[in-house]
Amino acid sequence: MLQIARIRSWPLAWKVPVLVAGLMVGIAALISQVVLSRLESNQENSLRQLTDAYLDGLSAAVLQPATRADVWETFDALDRARSHYSGVVARSVVVALPDDTILAASDPTRFPVRSKVPADLAQHIPSTDGLFIDNSGGRAWLARTLRVEGYSVGRILAEIDIADLLRVRREVLWTLIRVNGALTIAFAAIGYLALKRMLQPLSVLTSYVEQVREGRAEPIPEGNRRRIAAEFRQLFDRFNAMAKALSERETLASQLAAQEKYAVLGKLASGMAHEVNNPLGGLFNALETLRRHGADPAVRESTLNLLQRGLTHIRNVVRSTLVSYRHETAPNGAGAADIDDLRLLIEPEVARKGIVLDWLNEVRGRLPVAVGSVRQATLNLLINACAATPAGGVVRLRAREEKGSLIVEVGDEGPGLPTVLTNYLVAATEELAPAGDGLGLWIVRRLVAVEDGSISVERAQTGGTIIRVMWPFKVARSYQIDRDTRAEGEIAHVG
Amino acid sequence: MFWGGSFLNRASPILGRRRFVAGLISSAALSNQLLPAKAADAVTFGLNPLFLDSDIQLLSLIQKFLEAQLGRPVQLVKRRTYQEITAMLLSGQLDAAWICDDPYVQHQDQLTLLAVPLYRREPLYQTYVIVGEDLKANSFDDIKGTVHAFSDPDSTSGYLVTRYLLALKHTTPAEFFREFFFTYGHRNVVRAVASGLAGSGSVDGYVWDVMNEREPDLVKKTRVIYRSEPLGFPPIVGLQSPRDPNLARSLAAAFIGMPSDPVGRQILTLLELDGFTSATPDLYHATKEKWLVVKAQV
């Protein structure tokens, strides 16, 4: 079964020549069998005619001597016959009397005069007259009763060498094997070359499909469409149509991403303006209070403290933004602070929606994972969780080290992630995100996939969704994220 | 003797199948077909069955020689057995014949010697008893129980001498040998023994010696274990009361003068003989003794 499965997996360019060769071998075997069978039949007929003529002549020559039991005349006839029948190679010829004693033989030393016909000769020759062929031994035996007026006066028994006939059969067989073998090899080679040529367009198609898998959907150039079969021309047309559609979708996705980027930038600017603006009113009030009542030490001290807190808040907001969007240039790994920083970024949204943040970061020390991937993916998941969770709900974050990996879980109390988005998130394919997602999940998946991580989604007991992301520790590689991936992350981290 | 020996009757390698079968069925009939019809004044000369296909050259030369010497047409007559030629000669169907010494001594009272061949300058030859090269036999007694090949019942070397040796032992071929058969040719005896068809054989020593030079591959498969004393060579004979006494004299003169004639020398070369000579019946005394011993046993 394993062999059959292995053969089934062979390329067509092999299977067809092997099939042709197999059929040729079968046909050759059949033809050889027919030819050899016909040859054997013809040879037997010829041998029968030849030996009949031989026995006719021999009978005529030995009949009278045998009737007289004349030893010499019988032997003389047999001896002369030896050189006159070149078509029949008689190993030995015996003329036996009716009492089974030998009158004379062509080989008198083997068959002495008046001795009994030896058993080794008698056993090959039945009591009836005729030709008896032993192909395996390369011999044949003849028997002819000598009759005078209906009475038997003796029998001619002869052992014939048919090695020449068998040699001819062997030569014919080897000729058939050589010719059929050459034809089989030639047909298989022609089949291989022809099929390889016919399947050439498939190789072209395969290379372009491979490009699609690598993210480059290019149409097959016109130069590759010349002198190919109509079936492949249709296939190329379909592929080119598909490549064009993919290309358009990529363009569309890029445009969408750009729009998202602007939207995010707007939201970021708006959020930062809000965060900065909020304390500004108090700060201006504090300045006004200082101008009017700055002489009072107590008021001055209180107002300066207020100014300091306000400015500190603004500094923290700016610093957190800078930390989140800084370019990662060194593989330092991720620590607990890198994850806790995200809290500063998400807190305005949490406060705005009246959501409770349940934050448990159990990471200790620095773990060998890409900090940029961890921060940006986790931030995206937190933003999505905030968006999905209704006012008063809880957004949870759990971060820990487990079996050589960093595990980050983000839970919400929303209505649950649609199945289509769940499947998209956990799948390892390169397809774009389903409609309605924006680019948040796409970015998360790309960031995790680049680091050989994995994502799982489950329903929380309290309702909502828990998304678990695992980053395996990378000991021997750089955590440098390629420029494209980083750019995408920058665009989408708050998407 | 060599008349039964027919050492020249080697099968031609170019014989076709049809010819081969026909020859096997009736070699005598074929031989007769090769002879022309007898002219009214033709001389008939008998030869024992030595002349088969490949002996045609010899037959042709003998006919050419005799016709030239006698100035008359000559018809050569051959038969399968010695007995047939002897019977034709005695019945007056032949003017003369070259026969074996055994039939001569049997019918000495009716036949007269015209000429006797000279072999190695003597009108003599020997009988050989031969065995197959692998047979463990070194004397005549050792061939007891073998299959024996004789040449002809009327051949001295091919039957009479062996039969005589057995008679001295008060036994017969049927008792002494496991099996015996006649090949009607001395060369056939050598073939039978060389092939293993027979374990032993009685053969003309002159034929065996000539074959040993011409066909050593065949003859080396045989081994001589007995040689008889020298015996009178098979003679050319005529009737004691011929129809034409001049013809008998002319025939004798022709054979005796053979070495001086170019065709005659060709014949002698083919036969490996030195010539012919006149002889008296005493030359065949030993043969006659043997025949008488055998005759007495029968």
Label this structure with key terms:
heterodimer, A: alpha+beta, 13 helices, rod-shaped, B: 298 residues, six-stranded mixed β-sheet, five-stranded mixed β-sheet, globular, disordered N terminus
Describe the protein's topology:
The complex is a heterodimer of chains A (495) and B (298).
Chain A: H1 2-8, H2 12-67, H3 71-84, E1 90-96, E2 102-105, H4 119-122, E3 130-134, E4 139-148, E5 151-161, H5 163-198, H6 200-213, H7 230-293, H8 297-324, H9 336-353, E6 356-361, H10 371-388, E7 394-402, E8 405-411, H11 419-426, H12 440-450, E9 454-459, E10 465-472, H13 483-492
Parallel strand pairs in A: 6-7
Antiparallel strand pairs in A: 1-2, 1-5, 3-4, 4-5, 7-8, 8-10, 9-10
Helix pairs in contact in A: 2-3, 2-5, 6-7, 7-8, 7-13, 8-9, 9-10, 10-12, 10-13, 11-12, 12-13
Chain B: H1 2-5, H2 17-25, H3 27-34, E1 43-47, H4 56-70, E2 74-78, H5 82-90, E3 96-98, H6 101-106, E4 111-118, E5 124-125, E6 127-132, E7 147-150, H7 156-168, H8 173-176, E8 179-182, H9 186-195, E9 200-204, H10 205-214, H11 216-219, E10 222-227, E11 231-232, E12 236-239, H12 245-256, H13 262-271, E13 275-277, H14 285-297
Parallel strand pairs in B: 1-2, 1-3, 7-8, 7-9
Antiparallel strand pairs in B: 3-12, 4-12, 4-13, 5-11, 6-9, 6-10
